[in-house]
Amino acid sequence: MIKFRSKRFCRGMSFRFGGSGSSNNSVKGSEKGSNCAAAAIGEIKWELRPGGMLVQKRESGDSVVEMITIRVSTVSQWHDISVEATSTFGELKMVLSLVTGLEPREQRILFKGKERDDCEYLHMVGVRDKDKVLLLEDPAIKERKLHSLAGGQAIGTPCPTIRV
User: Fold this and answer.
1) How many Cβ atoms from other residues are within 10 Å of residue 108's Cβ?
2) Higher pLDDT pick, 106 / 5
3) Which strands form 107-111's sheet, in the order they lie side by side?
4) Domain membership flag for residue 111
5) How far is CA 51 from the centre of its chain?
6) CA 35/CA 50 separation, integer angstroms
7) Is residue 19 part of a domain?
8) Where are the alpha helices (DSSP H) in 23-138?
9) How confident is the model at residue 82 (pLDDT cuts 50, 70, 90)?
């Protein structure tokens, strides 16, 4: 987290903090300029968003996380997955691995006709609530699986016959 000190300017009002002061310098919420007084009391805290944008940090302790539902389509079925809008495609693959049984390295995710990298953020690419994403099994890994299931033989070669 990055902290910047802000200059505290308030028009038409002067404030004294600490030390001795009369009760006339205290500001109540109903007085004019109380928003300026509230800003003058504390420092402004900043945060760096995943896209690189520097924004003012929210005051509330509860950060509002926007959840989106994505329809993930495979060859034979589809799944509705709820994730945070600021998730990455790698995090989406982790959730999909629980649902589909495919490991994240075996998955290829396509959005708007392009394969997406694990480090890309959903909201930066343009994934919104109720958008569709295509999930494919990586063909190279699929072929290796089939090859290992065939007992190490090349696909298409006849099995050796056993003569008695």
Assistant:
1) 16
2) 106
3) 78-84, 67-73, 132-137, 107-111, 114-115
4) yes
5) 10
6) 30
7) yes
8) 34-41, 89-100, 122-125
9) very high
Whether residues 84 and 137 fall in one domain: yes
Q: Tokens in use for 1?
A: 């987290």
Same domain, 25 and 73: no
Structure-derived torsion over alpha carbons of residues 150, 151, 155, 158, reported in degrees to the nearest 10: -100
Query: Would the pLDDT of 158 be above 60?
Result: no
| Residue 136 main-chain phi, psi, to 5 deg | -125, 150
Of 8-12, 99-103, 116-120, 152-156, where does mean pLDDT reach its minimum?
8-12
The two tokens of residue 100 are 């589909």
**48: pLDDT confidence band, cut at 50, 70 and 90?**
confident
| Angle formed at CA 120 by CA 115 and CA 122, multiple of 5 degrees | 90
Q: State how many domains the chain has.
A: 2
Contact by Cβ (8 Å): 79, 96? yes
Over residues 121-129, the mean pLDDT reads 92
At 151, list the tokens: 């007992």
- Beta-strand relationship, 107-111 and 132-137: antiparallel
Whether the Cβ atoms of residue 86 and residue 123 lie closer than 8 Å to each other: yes
Indicate yes or no: pTM above 0.70.
Answer: no
Would residue 61 count as lying in a domain? no
